[in-house]
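In response to reviewer comment 3 from the previous cycle, which asked for concrete evidence that the modeling workflow produces usable outputs, we include below a single protein chain processed end to end. The sequence was submitted unchanged, and the resulting structure tokens are shown without manual editing.
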Amino acid sequence: MRLVLLGLPGAGKGTQGDLIAQKYGIPHISSGSLIREAVASGTPVGREVDSYIRKGELIPDGLAIEMISERIGRADCSQGWILDGFPRTVLQAIALDQRLAQIDLDVQMAFDIRITQEEAIERIAKRRMCSKCGAVYHLEHYRSQNQNVCDNCGGELYRRSDDTEETARTRLVVYMKQTHPVLHYYSMDGRLYSINGQRPIAEVFADLDYYLQRLVDAQGVGEAR
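The workflow returned the following structure tokens.
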């Protein structure tokens, strides 16, 4: 089961990716997490990545492709994976297909989790993340039991430096210009499925899972554990 999750920043890709991973036993690979790991490393590459992120810009295609290719090549991805936040450009989508074709694989389904731009800005500005496990919360719609502590691991919750309304608006402009065309790329050969993301988490997941069950039934891959 090889999946791509698309949608505006704040659409819920991370939350839905975690739910799919839990049910089907395949890794949820967030490009954001990979980027944050690189930034935290303090290496020259990490500092270069950080310079783009702080301005709300995308990192260069070549760097993104190498990071993702290395990750999906690990042993835990042998039965499939969920990509969240990648590809972010059509060139990245093409490069991913080319890399996978070399080993007779492909992206089987791409999901567009749809929300409005106004909703995206509101979600981003009120988003909080666990400093230890990376769990994501929202100050209104998906709060932790203790506003400053993660329910999963007890880690401290914080607001990412790029989760401001100003940066969110910049990210939306970048998304519409560079990432929105990726939807058309996957739609051309019938791999794109659109999901209404402006509903409760369980309802969004139910729609996603409807299509995933069809994939399991048709190809017998990625059965739930």
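Strands lie at 2-6, 28-30, 81-84, 109-114, 127-130, 136-138, 157-158, 192-196. We consider this sufficient to address the reviewer's concern, and the full set will be provided in the supplementary archive.
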